[in-house]
Amino acid sequence: MVSEFFTVLTNSEAANKLKLLSKDSGKLIFFSGNEKELLTSTILSVSESDGDGTVVHLAKAFVGQEVKSSDQEELFSFKIGGILYFGKSIINKVEEGSFYLNIVGSVYRLERREGDRLLTYPHLDVYLVLPFANALAEKNDNVIFLNKSDRQAQLKLNDKTVLLLKMVDEKNWKKFSIYRAMDISIDGASILVSPVDTAHFEIGKLIENGFLLIGEEKYTISNITVLGCADYINRSNKSDIQSKVNLAINKFDAKATRYIEQRIGKAWDRVEICNRFYDFMKVIDNND
Hints:
- By secondary structure, this protein is of the alpha+beta class.
- The protein folds into 2 domains: about 130 residues, Pnp Oxidase, Chain A; about 140 residues, predicted glycosyltransferase like domains (Thrombin, subunit H), CATH 2.40.10.220.
- The chain contains 5 helices and 16 strands.
- It has a 6-stranded antiparallel beta barrel. Strands 11-12-13-16-15-14 form a 6-stranded antiparallel beta barrel.
- It is elongated, with a radius of gyration of 22 Å.
């Protein structure tokens, strides 16, 4: 069973997430509890006002159901960068071909517990390859090593690094950078990044495509979002400060998903999580 809990967003955070979603014509998923399937509608625009708060304009037809009337309360969910968000809304106006809803109360982010990650260093050879020009290709220090013995074997390991990059693109491998994965999950990974590469990882940045290398296997990944970046101090060499970057990965190659699921359990069931949020909101409403 997936371990999860819900963290409240500020109103401005929630509005910004919805605006980000609307730029890609993203969808809201609606539910009212105990569903066997979920209903979706495409966002047309998002606006804010002092009187109405955050207002979302959507295409009128749900998949599988029509919007029936105004003053209709709906719980909703959406997904950005592999992270699920939930909230409550009320439909305030229905027009031909579209409708408007107001966000009621808070929007919540679904959090995953640390136990849902698979630790990959040092016993598993897992790397992320991303489309950043490899500025360190000639200096042979692109891969981060976590202890002194690794650094002593740097030249040998760097030969391996070049081979791994050539698995991605034999001719243009210098257009990519490779990072050792500290851990992976069904919706993300954390990697170590050298100081020269940290500029590539601004929080909120979207990286369209990349590759996940596990052993000698290559898998595609896409819609990668930078969630956070923090200093990482090597315990065996405290002067060696790198950055640990947390990434959300929205789409894995199906084979990679199976590999991860076999080791840490299956991905969450979207309907099940929506129904759990329904139960969570009943508790919140009863306490108001």
